Amino acid sequence: MIIIKLGGSIITDKSRYKTFRKRITEHIIKELADMDETMIVVHGGGSFGHIMAREYELPGGITEKRRIGAAIIHNDMVELNQMVTSILIENGISAVSIPPSSYILGNRRDYDIFDAYLDAGMTPVSFGDVYLMGGNEFGIYSGDQIMLDLSERLRPERAIFVSDVDGLYDKNPKLHKDARLLRSIYDDATFELSAADVTGGIKRKIETMKKMKEFVPEIYMLNGAKPERLREIGTKDFLGTMIS
Ligand code: ATP
Ligand code: IP8
């Protein structure tokens, strides 16, 4: 079984509110359909999540402003999820949407629903979203955290993070022309990191990937703008980062 995150950086234009990149998403999903593997799909928020989260100051304690923000963000995320799920179904994948609100409430988490749908031969699709934390707070459950939590529970053979850059670099490749792609990273790799999303951006992503190593033998990050790289995982032609 593989678990794959379609990053908000590739399936949306993160700088423009609610801009879905339909063509790119279709290309990636076509590759996934060809892989013919049991899988769980997770996707991030991109401009359907992070822009309004910043605007409405989420996560944080419940206030009138944050209530409205939480309502907008959840609604926007459901809209993005429906577009992603529809493309999965159009490509012959029996995808079923499983929003975080169906398995996380405060400190209570119950991931049985994923086992049930996998047992039924379906492909669960979950996504980063706002949720009600204990202590009168709204939290944001990120797609990366979902990847980690599901990996701990379901122990997939492979985890793949699809983003809009070739993999992990020693510094942000969008800001530094001389950034070097790291083909594989180990515990002692150091990074120059910048611009965080409400869920921590690339810094948190690296920490999450390192934690995932305990549960998943193979973890990859690759560029979804070159979806054929999904096919090249495990071959000498693969371009991306392997976390080992
Ligand atoms: P989302 O959280 O919306 O789902 P995502 O999971 O696709 O997004 P981001 O958190 O946006 O991923 O992280 C990818 C971005 O991180 C890239 O677009 C890149 O510009 C930026 N970045 C910053 N530093 C680095 C680095 N050292 N290596 C790779 N990418 C980096
Ligand atoms: O984009 C958070 O998930 P991520 C989504 O995977 C929201 O970090 C709602 C901001």
Task: Tell me what you see in this structure.
This protein has 244 residues and is of the alpha/beta class. The protein has one domain: 3-Layer(aba) Sandwich (Carbamate kinase), CATH 3.40.1160.10. Helices cover 36% and strands 21% of the residues. The chain has eight helices and 13 strands. It has helices at 8-11, 22-35, 50-55, 64-90, 112-119, 143-154, 201-212, 229-232, and strands at residues 2-6, 39-43, 60-61, 95-97, 104-105, 108-109, 123-127, 129-133, 137-141, 158-163, 184-185, 218-223, 241-243. The strands form three sheets. An eight-stranded mixed beta sheet has the order 4-7-2-1-10-12-13-11, with helices on both faces. Helix 2 packs across helix 4 and helix 6 (143-154) packs parallel to helix 7 (201-212). The longest helix has 27 residues, at 64-90. The radius of gyration is 17 Å and the shape is globular. Isopentenyl phosphate binds next to helix 3, helix 4, strand 8 and helix 6.
Q: How do you describe this structure in short?
A:
Helices cover 36% and strands 21% of the residues. The chain is of the alpha/beta class and 244 residues long. Bound molecules: adenosine-5'-triphosphate and Isopentenyl phosphate.
